[in-house]
Specification:
By secondary structure, the chain is mainly alpha-helical. 64% of the residues lie in helices and 0% in strands. It has helices spanning 23-26, 32-58, 80-91, 94-98, 105-138, 147-169, 181-205, 209-216, 221-246, 279-282, 284-309, 315-340, 345-370.
Length: 382
Amino acid sequence: MAVKRSIFEEVGAKPATGPQGGMIDAKGRGARGAIRIWLGAIFLLVMAMIVLGGLTRLSGAGLSITEWKPFSGALPPLNPADWADAFAQYKASPQYRIENQGMSLGDFQYIFWWEWSHRQLGRIIGLVWGLGFLFFWLSGRIPTGWTRRLLLLGLLGGIQGAIGWWMVSSGLTGRMVAVASYRLATHLGIGFIILGVTAWFMFQMGRTEGDLLQSRRQREDWLYRLASVVMVLVLVQVVLGALVAGIDAGRNYPTWPLMNGHFFPEDAFVVANGPAWRAFFENAGLVQFVHRMTGYLVFLTGLIVWFRARNSAHLATRRAFDLMALMLVAQVTLGIFTALYAAPLHIAIVHQLGAVVLWVLVLRARHNARYPQVGSIRKGTA
C-alpha cells in the first residue's frame, strides 16, 4: 500500500515517523514500581525497628542478651534448661549484679523478649533486603545504575548490626548498668541514615528517569541547600536525643522553659571520676541543655527555610515545606511535653516517632527542591 505524501514534501525525503519519546526510560528502566514497594516494606520495618529499639532502651531490656549470635540466636530459649542458661549468663552481667539483684525468672523473661524481638526484627530486615535484592538482580529488573545504590542499603544494614553489638558490649563490663550513651547515639544515628537513604530511593523510584532528568533542569539549588542545612540539624538533634535517652537525662529537670529555675544547669560540668569534657556525654543537665538549645536552633532554622520556600515557583515544593513546618511545630511541642512529664514511656516513644516523621518530611521537601514536580497553571497545580 502506497504511503500518502504531502504535496509540499521534497522529492526523496523520508516520511515522518512521529515523535519517539521516552528514549531515556526505554533502556534499562527496570521494575521501578515493584522495587519501590520493596523499599517501602524495608522503610516500614526500619521505622518499626527504631520504635522498638526505643522501647527496648526505655524498658531497660537492652542488656538482657549478653552474646551476639547473628544466626543461631534467631531461636529463643525453648525449654526450662535453655531459659536457665540464658538467665545465668545475664546474672554474670554488671546490670544484674548492681541493679537487678534478685530478679525473678519471669522478670528476666519480660526484658529478654524485648531485646530478642529487637534483634529478630533486625534479622527480618536483612532477610527482606537480601531476598529482594537477589530476586531483582537475578531477574534483571534493577534499573540501570541502581545496583550499587541498592547494595549500599544492604551494606549499611550490615554495619548497623555490628554497631548494635558494639553498643551492647559496652554495657557488659566493669560497673556499667546501661550501654554507653555515645554508642547508643551512633546506633540511632545510623538507623536514621538508613531510613533516610531508603526514603530518598523511594522518592527517586516514584518517578521515571526521564521525568527526574527533566525536572532537575528546573531545580532550585538555593532551596535545596537550605533544606540540606535543616536535614543535618535534624540528624544532629536525633543523635543528641539518643544521648539524652542513654543516661535517662529526659527524666531530670521536668520544667520548661527554665531547667529547675535556671537557664543553665548549676552542676552542668560535674562528672564522677573523670575530665570535664565527659559531661557532654554523662551529665544529665548539660546533655539535656544541649538537646534543648539544638531543638530551638532546628525550630528557628526550619521556620526560616519554610518562609523562604514560599517563594518557590512550584506548588508541590511549597506544600512539601508546609508539611515540614507543621511537623516541626508538632515535634517541638512533643519535646516540651516529654520534658515536663519527665519522659514517660508513651510520650517519649511518640516523640521519637515524631522525629522519624519530621526526618522524612525534611527529606521529601529537599527532594522536591532538587527535582521539582512541575505543575500546570490550567490545572491549578503551579
